[in-house]
Amino acid sequence: MLIEAVKLENSPEAGAEPERRVRDRGATERAILAAAKSLLAQEGFQNFGINAVARRAGCDKQLIYRYYGGLDGLVEAIGTDLGTWVRDRIPEDAGGMFLLTYGDLMERLALLLLDALKNDPLMRRILAWEISDNTEQVRRLSEARSKALALWLERMRGSLAPPKGVDAAAVNAIVIAAIQHLVLAGAAGGQCAGLSLKTPKDWEKAALALKRIVRGVYG
């Protein structure tokens, strides 16, 4: 029996079980994170809890404590994921566009952000919470997104500078606020201040207006 045990330990199959466990843990962590994001997007923080996330993920709630340390750790993981969201949805390349001026840069950011936000229910939820539900959890998610966006702009701008006399921080804040309001209004009622936001053509019209505003300020 001892010889058989030694053979088993040294056999190729002996290392398969720990490797499988590592893979299973990674899959479970991803399933928990995806379930948490889905739950937040659909129901908000009101129904966001360990039991609800575990049910949606199809796992034991103890695994959430083990892998994330509980609800706060799970929110922290979602915040980290928002940084990845910025990198994935607002790529750090020119997309075939020559960024010769600060206006080029801000036009690209504005259009990418508009497209990314209007196609992401969870991010729209977070935007709505920022102005209506100023809790610690919401602040953490908002700060993670804002930080990731600021880092994107810092890395991409290089030596590009706004025209003299333009308060770029104020202008950019207003442009981003306009984009956020457009996507929230479009999702809620399909229009914003009389501008229809229901069809791809409607959104193309909004994007063109956004480009003209950015170019009007930055040239």
Blueprint of the fold:
Elements: H1 2-10, H2 16-43, H3 50-57, H4 61-68, H5 71-89, H6 102-118, H7 121-132, H8 136-157, H9 168-189, E1 191-192, E2 195-196, H10 200-218
Antiparallel strand pairs: 1-2
Protein name: AcrR family transcriptional regulator
GO molecular function, one term: DNA-binding transcription factor activity
Pfam families: TetR_N
Give a structural overview.
By secondary structure, this protein is mostly helical. It has two domains: 2-69, Homeodomain-like (Arc Repressor Mutant, subunit A, Orthogonal Bundle), CATH 1.10.10.60; 85-218. The chain contains ten helices and two strands. The protein has a two-stranded antiparallel ribbon with strand order 1-2. The longest helix has 28 residues, at 16-43. The radius of gyration is 23 Å and the shape is globular.
Could you write a compact summary of the structure shown?
One of its GO terms (molecular function) is transcription cis-regulatory region binding. With 219 residues, the chain is an all-alpha fold.
Strand content: under 5%
Largest sheet, strands/sense/barrel = 2 strands, antiparallel
Overall form: globular
Ends apart, CA distance between termini: 81 Å
Counted beta strands: 2
C-alpha-based Rg, rounded: 23 Å
User: What structural class do the secondary elements suggest?
Assistant: mainly alpha
Q: Any low-confidence stretches, pLDDT <50, length ≥5? A: 1-22
Q: Average pLDDT value? A: 84
Number of domains: 2
* Sheet with most strands: strand arrangement: 1-2
